[in-house]
Design a protein that fits this description.
Elements (H helix, E strand, L loop, with lengths): L39 E3 L8 E3 L4 E3 L14 E6 L4 E8 L9 E9 L2 E10 L2 E10 L8 E7 L8 E8 L2 E7 L6 E8 L5 H4 L6 E7 L5
Antiparallel strand pairs: 1-4, 2-3, 4-13, 5-10, 6-7, 6-13, 7-8, 8-9, 10-11, 11-12
Amino acid sequence: TIPYVHRRPTLPLQPAPAVPTSGNFTVRDDFHGPALAPHWQLMRTPHDSWYDFRGGALTIHARPYGLGPDNPQPSIILRRQQHMVGSATTSMRYAPSRDGDKAGLVAFQNEDYYYFLAVARVNGTDVVQLEKHAGAPTGPAGIVIASAPLAASRTGAVELRIQARGPRYDFAYAERPGVWTTLAADVDGRILSTRFAGGFVGAMFGLYAVSAAAP
């Protein structure tokens, strides 16, 4: 019989890890290189070099590989969502060059169930949009459930933020640092659960870029 409570072994205290693994915490990664921190993960086995570190930033090279289960390894870097209540934020410099080019943040369960908060080119106009992928009915392109135009004259970074509040998620963007605009609120996050999507690994936050055509 395994007891509910057991006497702990008399081991020496260890120093706190540089990146916390439990409790409430904030982690910031400025991507100074030369390698990704251990808490970042990739999808599938990498065969190409599609990201690098430049001037204190992570550069992800967009390639024409989506997140579908039949595609090669996409340009996505993920970190596990460890809390029911939490957020992921990034500052991104990106200018899509053709319709279908997209880059941004994902809240990801698996290849069929995820949200993609992206800067994209649509009919020749730069927009920030939210795609919902919820299984086979939405198809590989997903469903755009919210969209807003970006300033044509923008030259700086666009900030993107995903906030998790239990089963609800909020998505926001900022064209000026810290000046947030909510793109979509109270979005159904249950599609990111294993109860809806299957599997057992849980949800993740990620940085993702995809191009409309071969580079």
